[in-house]
Write a structure and sequence with these properties.
The chain folds into two domains: about 160 residues, Nucleotidyltransferase, domain 5 (2-Layer Sandwich), CATH 3.30.420; about 160 residues, ATPase, nucleotide binding domain (Nucleotidyltransferase, domain 5, 2-Layer Sandwich). Helix 4 crosses helix 10, helix 5 runs parallel beside helix 7 and helix 6 crosses helix 8. The chain has a five-stranded mixed β-sheet, sandwiched between helices. The chain has ten helices and ten strands. The longest helix is centred in the C-terminal third of the chain and has 30 residues. Strand 4, helix 3 and strand 5 form a beta-alpha-beta unit. The chain is α/β, with parallel strands linked by helices and about 350 residues long. The structure holds 5'-O-[(R)-(carboxyoxy)(hydroxy)phosphoryl]adenosine and zinc ion. The site of zinc ion (ZN) has 5 residues, from helix 4.
Length: about 350
């Protein structure tokens, strides 16, 4: 089943062609350079960039996969959560294409995409989760979300924990800014953390002993601000030590709740997704913990599938198509910026 998938939920303009679980092309045009001078995503600039770049990105995805519109079985698009005016661009484009080429449309939840990204296979059919064991537990960590999702089956999800304020990635980005590092802070902090001492600076672990599976990163962000202000002039050594200490604290905060959720729900597997999972320390610590617990932990075969991309949307769309879940009324499909899995 060949699908053209589109995602314009935030600041990445993305299109992919998938066939079943195989990803034939996964093109991402990153708007990072546009937003960098502002230290964060500027919605109207994101919209303009999506409008300009999406046709080119779609064209590239189709060319790289070697398909034409005639070859496609369906078109899929992210309808939420995300920035309203950014989502609109993808939805409008997808509607125009399904009308023009008479194809069915599949509307996909961006977070379901992140959750199912580990099922993706490369174009030859390698990699990907082969024997899913339910319930599965998803840890989704990105710039906009920090969630624990219990997956009972495809299409059957329970959001058992989420951040009460900032997302973990957002906290990385804001702390990066406080340290004077380029946007987005996450990759830069993890690069510098390798050169620093993770025990040099004591930071509070958010929500450590709350009995639920929720997260909070606003308090940590404020603690970082005070500590950085107190330091005054920041030496290279201080910045590296701070990055290592901060990274360790965020990873610990995530692992405490992951472990609690594993103990309570006894999942058959762990599914990791979202841009922050690119972080090597997070990957290593999750793997170590899950080896101890005897629970397999999966992440997608390609780093691209962790960041915002449309390959994961094609994969989620394939499972929806198998359930017969197509958009019945095109005019009724609207963006849902606050969509919850
Ligand atoms: O999933 P994603 O591409 O976009 C959203 O849906 O938000 O995630 C982007 C987030 C950013 O906050 C970025 O700083 C963070 O992922 N990130 C990282 C790393 N690479 C990207 N955070 C920590 N360590 C990294 N290596
Ligand atoms: Zn995302």
């Amino acid at each position: 089943m060949k699908i053209l998938a589109i995602d314009t939920s935030c600041d990445e303009t993305a299109a992919a062609v998938t066939d079943g679980l195989k990803v034939f092309s996964n093109i991402i045009y990153s708007q990072i350079e546009t937003h960098r001078p502002f230290g964060g995503v500027v919605p109207h600039l994101a919209k303009r960039e999506h409008q300009e770049k999406l046709p080119l990105v779609i064209n590239e995805a189709m060319t790289e996969a070697g398909v034409t519109f005639d070859d496609l079985d369906a078109i899929a698009v992210t309808y939420g959560p995300g920035l309203a005016i950014a989502l609109e661009v993808g939805i409008k484009t997808a509607k125009d294409l399904v009308r023009k080429h008479q194809k069915p449309l599949i509307a996909v939840d961006h977070m379901e995409g992140h959750l199912l990204s580990s099922f993706a296979k490369d174009s030859k059919g390698n990699f990907g989760v082969d024997d899913p064991r339910f319930p599965a537990l998803g840890l989704l960590v990105s710039g906009g979300h920090t969630e624990l999702v219990l997956m009972l089956n495809f299409g059957d999800y329970q959001l058992i924990g989420q951040t009460l304020d900032d997302a973990a990635g957002e906290c990385f980005d804001k702390v990066g800014k406080m340290l004077g590092l380029p946007y987005p802070g996450g990759p830069e902090i993890s690069r510098r953390a390798k050169k620093g001492n993770p025990d040099a600076i004591k930071l509070p672990i958010p929500m450590k002993s709350s009995p639920d599976f929720n997260f909070s990163f606003a308090g940590l962000k404020t603690a970082c601000l005070y500590r950085i202000q107190k330091e005054g002039k920041l030496s290279e050594k201080f910045i590296n030590d701070f990055c290592a200490s901060f990274e360790k604290t965020v990873v610990e905060a995530l692992l405490i709740k992951l472990q609690a959720a594993v103990d309570k729900h006894q999942p058959g597997m762990i599914l990791l997704g979202g841009g922050v999972v690119v972080n090597e320390k997070l990957q290593t610590e999750v793997k170590l913990l899950m080896e101890k617990k005897g629970v397999p932990a999966y992440l997608p075969y390609d780093r691209k599938l962790l960041l915002d991309n449309a390959g994961m949307i094609g994969v989620a769309a394939f499972f929806k198509a198998q359930r017969g879940d197509f958009v019945k009324n095109l005019d009724g499909l609207d963006r849902q910026p606050r969509l919850e899995i």
